[in-house]
Amino acid sequence: MMRLFVMRHGDAGPGYPDRARELSERGHAEAQRMAAWLARELPGGARLYTSPYLRARQTAAHLAAELGVEPELLPIITPDDPPQAVCGWLLEGQAVLPRILVSHMPLVGALTGLLSEGRAERGLGFPTAGVAELEGEVWAAGCARLLRFMTPTDIR
Fold first, then answer.
1. With contact defined as beta carbons under 8 Å apart, do 67 and 42 qualify?
2. I want to staple 9 with a disulfide (CB 3.0 to 4.6 A). Which of 14, 24, 55, 89 is the partner?
3. Distant-in-sequence, close-in-space partners of 139: CB < 8 Å, separation ≥ 6
4. Which pLDDT tens digit goes with each residue over 75-87?
């Protein structure tokens, strides 16, 4: 079974253009809390992918520091990208290590819904820095199982 962690970026301040919005102080704290949790959950490492938007890259930087990996930019995980494109990308390569995607709403909710329920419109509502952990043998519509959903307030 392969594992996939789908994460929404931390809280971000307002700004324009959207791709240049930065994490707030709260967003950095949320990202750091989830990064420490993921490092405990993934002692064997992971592949880390991030949206090119600044707030996602800043969130991924916290994860990268805790996991000891370099984040890779993945241009198909911006807020309005279709979840079907991400499924296609996931299907292209069978990963040995778990993968972490740091992205945005509505994509993170739609992708999680598509993979676990078979329908993008049935996706989860992700709070900032929320993480859905999925497992599956193939990353196609309805073929994954949602193992758990964690938020920064769930971490003790």
1. yes
2. 55
3. 2, 4, 87, 90, 91, 115
4. 999 999 999 999 9
Separation in Å, CA 54 to CA 35, 88, 99, 104: 17, 24, 20, 11
Q: So what's the pLDDT on residue 124?
A: 86
Sign of the dihedral defined by the CA atoms of residues 3, 89, 113, 81, in that order: positive
Residue length of the chain: 156
CB 51 within 8 A of CB 21: no
Q: Beta strands of the chain (E only): which ranges?
A: 2-8, 47-50, 72-73, 99-103, 131-136, 144-150
Helix/strand/coil percentages in the chain, nearest 5 = 40, 20, 40
